[in-house]
Inverse folding.
């Protein structure tokens, strides 16, 4: 089986593979080309993923997790009912669902994948994504940036053209912009910029905030303090309607925001029925939308290209369907945008092409070569002599932002104290001269000891960073006078699961998945029985109805013993009557 390409999105995900040398989206179990990145654990303990989980948010908001991508690379946990999960585990459930969708469609096992991430994802976020794939049973062969994947998909069909592409990627939860050059079969990233905390979900929240404020101003009622529903339940109702309104305003000039029952106030039911125009929506999102243009300026500056050098604009991500977004991008770049690509699918398609290159299904020598960059500066902390005082906490870059990957760079440092016999190396990622403003990558200290005890400044320590195509950093430190060295791959860091946590997560996933598959089998038994009722005589039909009713009651009560009993009885009847 060829390696698959996966776009693991904040709000929606997609999976693709190479078919006859061309990338193709694979539909999920529901027959849809994209899958909502939503996971739910219902009252029976069944794991539900995708469309059904999204539609169940209103009824079970405390047992539903969405938009988990924003938590990747953090040490936060999320709750699904009584269960606490790390972000990697939730993402792993989405990946496993996509994996099984492919296996069911193609009848082959899937064990390897190329997964995309935002260009501005940090080192810990990238590692967390790799860990999620591993928990799901996938060997993640490559992590690539989403704008790069979009350019790969585009470049795969336009290899004979030399051009500069601006990829404007505004998804559900993140924003990236990349400047990419395509020439002689090479896709080279020139520069990237972005914001990992900006996307379509923020536009939804802007609508929700407007509705809550307007309702309180008009009626004097704060919607989060009504009776009959918790604040979490009200938020879920408003957020769902806000997403619908946002999408409708892409094709309509005004839309009614309607929620028939939000709760109770002074004994009376509360209904929301408000009109919002496209102009009002554009005012609500204007500041957020315009902020993306500042990132466009940053990327252009770092690429050393002018606006006139850009040949084509590719819009990626569902939020780019918003007319106001298209308008400000066209006005900024002074040229029309390309509308011949599907913004929801192009990233997964590009990942599939990269998977084909990795597996050898596509010969890069004859077709496509991808050259990406390091999205952040990587370095270590040092001390400086400032006005005769030794002050620590300064950031010294070793690999600079925009360096082509894979890349190896090294610097030489000197001991700061007399008779110093060791150095402790800390690794940081960021652009600020103070390390406290950057992100520390290593949770465990990297210690190089055995330095000959000499006067300060007389011993040299060489530090080398190697950053590979998956965004994995290796640190090597050497005592120049003796040749002693240590080498560490930065695996242990805040926000990334360690091996013990990974083992526990895999066990939990398999247990939850097996339980969910059991419930899925019970549902299939009920479906077969209800279908058979239409074909058998009255006597057999009555027996089936009684068995179906008993099984449904057992399911509603989550009575495991009775579920197993009635499932077996119903299965026996199906065998008897078929």
């Amino acid at each position: 089986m060829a390696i698959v390409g996966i776009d693991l999105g904040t709000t929606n995900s997609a999976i693709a593979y190479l078919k006859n040398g061309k990338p193709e989206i694979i539909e999920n179990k529901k027959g849809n080309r994209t899958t909502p990145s939503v996971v739910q654990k219902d009252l029976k303990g069944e794991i539900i993923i995708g469309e059904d989980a999204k539609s169940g948010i209103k009824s079970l908001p405390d047992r539903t997790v969405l938009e988990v991508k924003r938590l990747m690379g953090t040490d936060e946990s999320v709750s699904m009912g009584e269960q606490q999960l790390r972000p990697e585990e939730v993402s792993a459930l989405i990946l496993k669902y996509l994996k099984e969708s492919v296996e069911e469609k193609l009848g082959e096992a899937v064990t390897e994948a190329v997964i995309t991430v935002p260009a501005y994802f940090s080192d810990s976020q990238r590692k967390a994504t790799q860990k999620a794939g591993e928990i799901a049973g996938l060997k993640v062969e490559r992590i690539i940036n989403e704008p790069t994947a979009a350019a790969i998909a585009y470049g795969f069909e336009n290899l004979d053209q030399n051009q500069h592409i601006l990829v404007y990627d505004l998804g559900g939860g993140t924003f990236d912009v990349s400047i990419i050059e395509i020439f002689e079969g090479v896709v080279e990233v020139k520069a990237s910029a972005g914001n990992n905390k900006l996307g379509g979900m923020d536009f939804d929240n802007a609508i929700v905030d407007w509705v809550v404020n307007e309702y309180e101003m008009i009626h004097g009622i704060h919607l989060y303090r009504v009776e009959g529903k918790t604040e979490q339940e009200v938020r879920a109702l408003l957020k769902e309607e806000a997403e619908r309104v946002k999408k409708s305003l892409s094709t309509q000039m005004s839309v009614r925001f309607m929620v028939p029952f939000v709760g109770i106030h002074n004994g009376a039911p509360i209904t929301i029925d408000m009109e919002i125009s496209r102009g009002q929506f554009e005012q609500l999102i204007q500041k957020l939308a315009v902020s993306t243009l500042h990132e466009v300026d940053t990327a252009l500056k770092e690429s050393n290209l002018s606006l006139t050098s850009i040949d084509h604009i590719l819009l990626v991500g569902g939020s780019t369907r918003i007319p106001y977004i298209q308008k400000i991008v066209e006005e900024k770049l002074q040229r029309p945008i390309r509308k011949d690509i599907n913004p929801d699918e192009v990233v997964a398609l590009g990942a599939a092409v990269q998977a084909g290159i990795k597996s050898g299904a596509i010969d890069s020598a004859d077709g496509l070569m991808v050259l990406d960059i390091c999205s952040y500066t990587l370095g270590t902390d040092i001390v400086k002599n400032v006005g005769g005082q030794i002050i620590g906490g300064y950031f010294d870059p070793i690999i600079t932002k925009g360096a082509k990957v894979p890349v190896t760079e090294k610097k030489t440092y000197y001991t700061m104290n007399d008779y110093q016999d060791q150095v402790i190396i800390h690794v940081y990622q960021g652009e600020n001269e103070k390390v406290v403003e950057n992100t520390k990558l290593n949770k465990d200290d990297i210690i190089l000891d055995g330095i000959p005890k000499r006067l300060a400044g007389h011993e040299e320590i060489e530090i080398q960073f190697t950053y590979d195509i998956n965004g994995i950093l290796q640190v090597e430190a050497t005592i120049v006078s003796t040749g002693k060295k240590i080498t560490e791959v930065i695996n242990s860091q805040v926000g990334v699961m360690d091996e013990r946590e990974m083992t526990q997560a895999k066990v939990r996933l398999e247990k939850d998945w097996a339980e969910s598959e059991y419930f899925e089998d019970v549902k299939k038994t009920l479906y077969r029985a209800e279908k058979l009722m239409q074909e058998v005589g009255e006597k057999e039909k009555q027996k089936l109805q009684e068995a179906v009713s008993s099984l449904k009651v057992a399911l509603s009560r989550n009575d495991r013993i009775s579920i197993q009993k009635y499932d077996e009885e119903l299965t026996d009847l199906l065998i008897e009557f078929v």
